[in-house]
Design brief:
The complex is a heterotrimer of chains A (371), B (301) and C (304). With 371 residues, chain A is an alpha+beta fold. Chain A folds into two domains: 226 residues, Rossmann fold (3-Layer(aba) Sandwich), CATH 3.40.50.300; 133 residues, Nucleic acid-binding proteins (OB fold (Dihydrolipoamide Acetyltransferase, E2P)), CATH 2.40.50. Chain A has eight helices and 20 strands. Helices cover 71% and strands 0% of the residues of chain B. Chain B has two domains: 53 residues, no CATH class; 185 residues, MetI-like fold, CATH 1.10.3720. Chain B starts with 24 loop residues before the first helix and ends with a helix. Chain B has 301 residues and is mostly helical. In chain B, helix 5 packs across helix 7. Chain C is an all-alpha fold and 304 residues long. Chain C has a single domain, classed as MetI-like fold (Orthogonal Bundle). Helix content of chain C is 74%, strand content 1%. In chain C, strands 1-2 form a two-stranded antiparallel sheet. In chain C, helix 2 packs across helix 12, helix 4 crosses helix 7 and helix 9 packs antiparallel against helix 12. Classes of the chains: A alpha+beta (371), B mainly alpha (301), C mainly alpha (304). At the B-C interface, helix 1, helix 4, helix 5, helix 6 and helix 7 of B face helix 1, helix 3, helix 4, helix 5 and helix 6 of C. Bound molecules: adenosine-5'-triphosphate (ATP) and magnesium ion. The site of adenosine-5'-triphosphate has 10 residues of chain A, from helix 1. Adenosine-5'-triphosphate binds next to helix 1 of chain A.
Chain lengths: 371, 301, 304
């Protein structure tokens, strides 16, 4: 039984503003689903529809296998953490955490017990009598989290909960979040811009664009087998190299070089080759599948360099490679290897992934994928 | 003279920004201070004059040429004492205060929910209602008094505090609605969304979340409403005819109007001071709030 | 979009109407009913002649009004009072706002002092001004005679028709200039300093900056202040009532005083209602015109 299910959800603000066009998915108990996608792609809108803060124009939100479209947010037994934390400024930490329980008419000694327990988990014992204005950003974040946890809801919704924290704190809270949510089985829907958060926290990642679901998969699948060109370009940093190339028989033409296209589909006249910069290597002397080019830009990322290379014979094609920082690269000619097993192929017309033989043409499980 | 300085005084002009008037800088400054003193004298003069009159003996008041600053033997509190012994200014102050405070509280209690509905609940026809509220602020009370007089007669409310409390609530409602609405709209939306998810219904949210957070705005609006109610004249004049129910402005105005010959200048001046003192104090303590309320009611509305 | 398919929203709106209802009812009772009632009553005669019973009389009241010299004089007085005091208040209010916008020590307290007149009860202020303009012991006479030697002898200011009007206007200007300056000051503070700096680098004089930047950008505030002031001045009651009682000889009888006298002294309710209606219509017409103008100006300056 799906704990949370969205069926053909659509939100139309006006004929021109349709942030969610047709979205269906399910989140089971114990699952942690993360929405990622470019700004304005409807992540928050979807979350707000689940919460009941927005009404879907079409489609259904189901919690515990019941349609909750007509239920007010307070009657859905969900908890939501906002990016701004949305703590009530005139209430103490204790009252903030207890507010939802009080409204549910939970007996007061149980409220005391549950608030204390949650406060203990999040290390808020010392802060219970303070007002939010007297808390640091990280502490506020914890209070917001506590307010959600103490409710024991059917679904947790979190909209970019860590994005107002500084980088260091974010890592720390992220680890705590993982522990907290691993320890309980309530489904979680999480929105973030941060791919590391998406990768580390989630059991499933949903990539949204243009109001449609692009891919819904485990994090490693999203990274290793992006369902289309959009997902390939969106997930991973630095961004995957995506080169639109002409085909000749079973080869894609990259400047002076030919890259063999594996079997499994008929080679079209044009094809998109994708390879992540971290998979591009310096060629060993004995390697055959190589390209040559000239470095024209070096970006220092700390533990490695990001090199932009102009491929010989194709002056307008740039390949970016992530290479180790123990060497200096400047305006050099390099020979790079593009390992065939790391190359993704996409249909140049619709951007869909082209299944290759060596990954045993396994199609996605019937999830409608559109652009 | 176009330096609009905000809260930090900027005394010196930026270097290398030599204007033709650079040499006459002291002159500019002198002119500015002359202007400032003029503003102060203009604004305070009449009130100060009333105050000086109110503490002078009758002889000093009618001495010619006019005595500006009374000699030590010309001071008296007699006029104030008279107000509270021969006249019933104690009762008048109570009437004014009671009516103004009650109507202000009522106005906030009725106006804030309406303002919230207009700020957040997306009612159809909202724009029309707002426009109507805005236009209503422009109606002078003389247009209303005839119809209200009829209502007061029919309901037998004459010489009842309600005859003032209800109209005062009404005349302050438009301002309350406009000012509170503009404050509500500035609240972060997430808070209300969060409250909805927590299970607050609209009324609980208003009373437990939104209003506690807009307490400063309520104070601002309340001060304005109090001022308007305290100062109102025509309804008080018309609906309260019994001597012991009069409000301060009416009582003060009628103090001089009774006898043509022996005008009680001293008590009159004392009455104006008594009637204005609460407002002077309000302005002294809440100048910022008053300005904020007036501008958000008038300009943003 | 339809709202019928959204039960949550429907419930929210129902609550909204309930929250709005008390305010709406009071506003309707205190504003809409009296005005509506005046329209109805203006077609009736209800005075001592009819035993204070309303008797339908068509447009009699309006015909009578057209021939009523006292009515026209009161309209004239109100117009003069409104126009002159409005102009003076705008000029003075602008000057005050510019002064209060400067940086100087003690600006906060000066601003506080400057808004004081606005907050005080008009009826009481009228008493103060009546005392200032007193013919025997008034400080105004004393200043003109003994300080500035402009006058040989004291003048009975409030006893002279022209001077009485001027004195009432002066008192009103004193009372409400602060309101205008509050609004204009808020407007001034919202104008970015960069505009002036860029303009003065271009070689503009302060006067040119004032004409080309301050005035246009302040137009919305100027119009709003004028609108409020117009409505209040045209219906002013307490100031002339207390200061001059409309005298001498009707020289300061504003339309509001005439309405009040018609109703309260002559108990002529029907005619009073007709006077209310006409005053209301004049107000609405002017307000409609100026809001139209206001929206045009707002569009032109791109403000709000
Ligand atoms: N109440 C509304 N009325 C009209 N349009 C809206 C409304 N709320 C959101 N939108 C529009 O819907 C689109 C999606 O917004 P949404 O907040 O869901 O994006 P998001 O994916 O959360 O973006 P971000 O990552 O920036 O938070 C945006 O284009 C936004 O402008
Ligand atoms: Mg968002």
């Amino acid at each position: 039984m799906a704990k949370l299910e969205l069926r053909h959800l659509n939100k139309t603000y006006s004929p021109k503003i349709v942030p969610v066009k047709d979205l269906s998915l399910a989140v089971e108990d114990g699952e942690f689903l993360t929405f990622v996608g470019p700004s304005g792609c409807g992540k928050s809108t979807t979350l707000r529809m689940i919460a009941g803060l927005e009404q879907p124009t079409k489609g259904e939100v189901r919690i515990g296998d019941r349609n909750v479209n007509a239920k007010a947010p307070g009657d859905r037994n969900i908890a939501m953490v906002f990016q701004s934390y949305a703590l009530y400024p005139h209430m103490t930490v204790h009252d903030n955490i207890a507010s939802g329980l009080k409204l549910q008419k939970v007996p007061s000694n149980e409220i005391r017990h549950r608030v204390a327990e949650t406060g203990h988990i999040l290390g808020l014992e010392e802060l219970m009598d303070r007002k939010p204005a007297k808390l640091s950003g990280g502490q506020r974040q914890r209070v917001a989290l506590a307010r959600a946890l103490v409710r024991r809801p059917d679904v947790f919704l979190l909209d970019e909960p860590l994005s107002n924290l500084d980088a260091l704190l974010r890592e720390q809270v992220r680890a705590e979040l993982k522990q907290i949510f691993d320890a309980q089985s309530t489904p979680v829907v999480y929105v973030t811009h941060d791919q590391t958060e998406a990768m580390t926290l989630s059991t499933k990642v949903a990539v949204l664009n243009n109001g449609y679901l692009q891919q819904l998969d485990a994090p490693h699948e999203i990274y290793n087998k992006p369902a289309n060109q959009f997902v390939a370009g969106f997930i991973g940093s630095p961004q995957m190299n995506l080169l639109t190339l002409k085909c000749q028989s079973n080869n894609a033409i990259l400047g002076d070089y030919r890259i063999p296209i594996p079997g499994g589909f008929a080679p079209p006249p044009e094809i998109v080759l994708g390879i992540r910069p971290e998979h591009v290597r310096l060629a060993r002397p004995d390697e055959r599948q190589t390209i040559q080019g000239q470095v024209f830009l070096v970006e220092n990322l700390g533990m490695s360099y990001l090199l932009s290379v102009r491929v010989k014979g194709a002056e307008n094609v740039t390949v970016r490679a992530l290479l180790s920082a123990d060497q200096r690269w400047n305006n050099e000619d390099l020979t790079l290897a593009l390992p065939l097993e790391s190359i993704h192929w996409f249909n140049a017309q619709n951007g869909d992934r082209l299944p290759t033989t060596h990954e045993e043409a396994r199609l996605d499980q019937g999830i409608p994928v559109k652009r | 003279m176009t330096t609009t300085a905000h809260d930090t005084p900027r005394q010196t002009p930026p270097a290398g920004h030599a204007t033709p008037g650079a040499q006459s800088f002291p002159l500019k400054k002198v002119l500015l201070w002359v202007a400032i003193i003029a503003v102060v004298l203009f604004s305070l003069g009449p009130v100060l004059w009333q105050w000086l009159t109110s503490i002078k003996t009758n002889d000093a008041i009618t001495e010619l040429p006019v005595v500006y600053f009374p000699a030590p033997n010309q001071y008296t509190l007699q006029h104030y004492i008279e107000l509270f012994t021969r006249e019933r200014f104690g009762a008048y102050i109570f009437n004014s205060a009671f009516v103004a405070i009650t109507s202000t509280l009522l106005c906030l209690a009725i106006g804030s929910p309406a303002a919230y509905a207009l700020a957040r609940l997306r009612l159809p026809g909202e724009q029309f209602i707002l426009a109507a509220v805005l236009i209503v602020t422009l109606f002078p009370y003389i247009l209303l008094f005839l119809g209200l007089l009829e209502i007061v007669r029919v309901t037998g409310l004459a010489n009842n505090y309600l005859a003032l409390i209800i109209p005062y609530t009404a005349i302050n409602l438009p301002l309350t609605i406009l000012v509170m609405r503009s404050f509500f709209q500035q609240l972060p939306r997430d808070l209300e969304d969060s409250a909805k998810v927590d299970g607050y219904n609209t009324v609980q949210m208003l009373t437990q979340i939104v209003l506690p957070m807009t307490l400063p705005a309520l104070v601002t609006t309340g001060i304005l409403a109090f001022i308007f109610a305290w100062n109102e004249y025509i309804f008080a004049l018309t609906f309260m005819t019994r001597e012991n129910l009069k409000t301060i402005p009416v009582a003060a105005a009628q103090l001089g109007g009774t006898t043509l010959f022996d005008v009680p200048f001293g008590p009159l001046a004392a009455a104006t001071i008594v009637g204005t003192l609460p407002l002077i104090l309000l302005v002294l303590f809440f100048q910022r709030k008053i300005v904020q309320g007036l501008t958000s009611g008038a300009v943003k509305g | 979009m339809t709202t019928t398919t959204d039960p949550i929203r429907a419930r929210e709106q129902r609550t909204g109407w309930l929250l709005l209802a008390p305010a709406a009812l009071i506003l309707l009772a205190i504003y809409a009913y009296p005005i509506g009632r005046a329209f109805v009553l203006s077609f009736f005669t209800e005075n001592l002649g009819t035993g204070l019973e309303p008797v339908f009389s068509g447009v009699d009241n309006y015909v009578r009004m057209a021939l009523d010299g006292r009515f026209w004089l009161s309209i004239w007085n109100s117009t003069i009072f409104t126009v002159v005091s409005l102009i003076l208040e705008l000029i003075l209010g602008m000057a005050f706002a510019l002064i209060l916008d400067q940086a100087f020590r003690g600006r906060g307290i000066v601003r506080t002092i400057a808004i004081l007149p606005w907050a005080l009860p008009t009826a009481i202020i009228a008493l103060a001004w009546r005392w200032i303009f007193n013919d025997q012991y008034g400080v105004w006479n004393d200043m003109l005679v003994n300080w500035f030697h402009i006058l040989e002898n004291p003048v009975n200011w409030l006893g002279n028709p022209t001077w009485a009007m001027i004195c009432v206007i002066a008192a009103d200007v004193w009372k409400t200039t602060s309101f205008v300056s509050i609004l204009l000051l808020a407007g001034l503070q919202s104008i970015s300093q960069d505009l002036y700096e860029a303009h003065s680098i271009d070689g503009a004089t302060p006067w040119q900056s004032f004409r080309q930047i301050t005035l246009p950008l302040l137009m919305p505030q100027i119009l709003i202040a004028s609108l409020f002031r117009f409505a209040q001045a045209f219906g002013i009651f307490d100031l002339p009532q207390v200061m001059t009682g409309g005298g001498p000889g009707g020289a300061t009888e504003m339309v509001s005083l005439y309405i009040y006298a018609t109703v309260m002294n002559y108990l002529d309710f029907g005619y009073g209602a007709a006077l209310v209606v006409i005053t209301f219509l004049v107000l609405v017409a002017v307000v409609a015109l100026s809001t139209f103008f206001l929206s045009k100006v707002r569009n032109a300056t791109g403000v709000q």
